[in-house]
TrEMBL record:
SMART domains: LysM (SM00257). The lineage of its organism: Bacteria, Pseudomonadati, Pseudomonadota, Gammaproteobacteria, Cellvibrionales. Residues 108-133 are annotated as: Disordered. It comes from Saccharophagus degradans. This is Peptidoglycan DD-metalloendopeptidase family protein. GO terms for molecular function: metalloendopeptidase activity. It comes from the Bacteria.
Length: 260
């Protein structure tokens, strides 16, 4: 009798197992999709920022940013001012023409200072632009340091908007072309001590992670002039991060620099 019960239990167990195996398997449904990055529509000016550095931060053309916010050609902004970022860049980069080193022509022009109206009392200092100085830039470029490329430009997704150049602490950082310094500071996250040089209405270049800045906003620099010393500010190793922008958009510096 016990044997019969044992056999019946075995048969029931086998039937249950067969039923489970015939049921279709459904993997658990998990939504791993991430929401798209939140688009930022405005920026509140912090002390030390310039219109150029704000445009650089958001990959925008400084001229379009000024026009969208009613900022006059002197590009004066002040801490606490709200900057509208709802503009678009559609200008494609031009064909690269490498020319002879540019000549620098200094011509003093009175700066146009426009102070936007604001309500309430505030002790914030108005961020005045440097004295406007025009330079003649022929469009040629030179290497910003005598060192090797260790990281390349990647336009896909904006992962790496320039090139990294390996050097030693204190190595000379040179202006890649004639122009005017429009930003000198450490207010852009991830860039450390940064210089931005305006070469023309279209082109700007940037030099990041410096240990020491040797020029200030408003200074006119010549191609090849020492403007900083290499360092590791804002990063984990000594290097120069070099970028070129055309109408606010990152372009590959290796398309402009002379072949080594």
């Amino acid at each position: 009798m016990e044997q019969v019960r044992w056999l019946i239990n075995i048969l029931i167990a086998l039937l249950l197992l067969q039923g489970c195996s015939s049921a279709p398997y459904r993997a658990p449904v998990t939504d791993v999709s991430q929401p798209p990055p939140r688009k930022i529509h405005t920026h509140v000016v912090a002390p030390g920022e310039t219109l150029y550095s704000i445009a650089w931060r958001y990959d925008l053309d400084y001229k379009s940013l000024a026009a969208a916010n009613g900022v006059a050609s002197g590009y004066t902004i002040y801490p606490g001012q709200i900057i509208n970022l709802n503009i678009s860049n559609t200008t494609p980069p031009p064909k690269v023409l490498k020319k002879n080193p540019p000549a620098v022509v200094k011509k003093k022009v009175p700066a146009v200072v426009s102070t936007p109206r604001r309500s309430g009392n505030t002790s914030s200092t108005v961020k005045k632009p440097p004295e406007v100085t025009t330079t003649k830039w022929s469009g040629s470029w030179q290497w910003p340091c005598k060192c090797d490329v260790i990281a390349s430009f990647h336009s896909n997704g904006g992962l790496h908007k320039g090139i990294d150049l390996k050097g030693d602490l204190g190595d000379s950082v040179l202006a890649a072309g004639a122009g005017q310094v429009v930003y000198a500071g450490d207010g852009l996250r991830g860039y450390g001590k940064l210089l931005i040089v305006k070469h023309s209405d279209k082109y700007l270049s940037a030099y990041a992670h410096n240990s020491r800045l040797l020029v200030k906003e408003g200074d006119v620099v010549a191609a090849g002039q020492k403007i900083a010393e290499m360092g590791s500010t804002g990063t984990d190793s000594v290097k120069l991060h070099f970028e070129v922008r055309y109408d606010g958009q990152p372009v590959n510096p290796l398309n402009y620099l002379p072949k080594k």
